[in-house]
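As a warm-up, study this chain.
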Amino acid sequence: MLKKPSEYITTLLKNTMRKAFFSFMLRLFNLPKSDISVKKRGLIIILVDGLGYEVFKRNHTKNKYTFFSKIFNKDYRLIPYFTGLPATTTATEAELFFGESTNIPSFTWFDRKLFKFVRGNRGPDIALFEKTIRKRSELLKNGSCILGVYSAGATLCNLSGEAFNIKNPFASIKKLQYLFIFLNPYRFLYTCYLVFRSILLSSWMLLKKKSKNKFMTILRDSFSRIFLGNIMTYIAELEISRETPILFIDYVLYDEFAHEYGIESKTSHSSLRLIDFYCESLYHASKKAQRRYEFIILSDHGQTPSIPIHISTADTLETMFAAALSDKSRRIIRTYGGFSADSINMKKDIYLVPSGSTMHVYFSEKLQDGYYENELNTMYPYLTRNLLSQKEIGWILLKKDSEHQILIGKYGSVEFSRGKIKSSKGKPFGKMIPDDQMVQSFAKYATYGNNGDLVLFGALNHDGRLYAFEEHKGTHGGFYGEMTKPFIITNNETLIKIASYDTDMKKLFQHIRSLHQ
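Now compare it with the structure written out below.
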């Protein structure tokens, strides 16, 4: 259908103004264009953090999206893939960028080689860990990374965890020169609406819990979740104007909202409408660029409906573990890292490191190499039994020796050897029937040296929700449910063909990396 003359003139004027604006910004901030020839095909990867395949599909069926619905009419396909254990951003992005995700057991862990705690959103620590990863490639070399966990070789624009602190956005934003978010009134007003709504809902929840000292945290989180998404989209469009050969951007909005409100809440869905809008902006920007771009949208993991572990005290996890341990000489500390190894009590501390539906337990005197099952049983013969007697704990992973590990459930166990299944007793997974792909993923995960001396996994509640070790209504980091089943949106025929017979992320990501070689 032909456009009316007035529509044609409006579109032409809008495109001319947009081009002039971004040309002005490039000159204002002295940002050179990429020196890689525009004849080389580019790659844009948009990551929608935490959005599972089934949730996306249900929303699409209900016509919740505008842009996504349009591109499905342009030969783009929605395909599921399998992340395996652990279903977390730190592991998925490492596999995508480097072709290697071994020894990344969760979002937060104690790295036995670095001898320090590492957390995915703590810049200096994750940057140090990135240097130790055995890299098959650095996907973002000579390109741009916006809100990725790792820099992955990005040189044109690096706003990864190394350079940008999502936990302290007010301090980080001072380093940016891109405060031009007010130039799109619709986007700005919709963003303000979501920020305001998030603050109201969170404040109401705090009032019901009679907790008043977290209000500043809510303000900070609302800013980092929503406002930064707006800023980062403009930066991404600016990078496309620079003809960057490869661009990666991670939108964290849905993941954070789903943790707090649930995977199917209206607030979580409203963030998806905003992401839909952002993706459309970047898609149209890519079509106006001189460089031809491959355009891929994917998620890094899904989320499974969950219920936080609650005992009767404020120190839920510490109290639970102390009761199972029965050793008052030990100091039990719940931590997400952020402190020096110099402060570690080498004889008395036990560190509980929650990460969604998993929790790693490290004994301070064995941080270098970890305990084996028989050593723990000698010191604490009833520890495993006591933990599994808690309804919230479903499984415990332990090391038998340097080559063997065992996963103990309430009704059975499975033993692994050198990354393969060795034997099984009883019904290790109870009523749950995991497929072979999942159990094989567990076998590989069990070999990770950075795993805790004990790795606890939340049990399945009677209503199908998973117990989480954090305050999550939607959780991930483990192996059950939608968390291991994210998606890819692409029109690349080879990628679609690969997914038709193998949904493992390793093979799919290998092809994505090949698109930019």
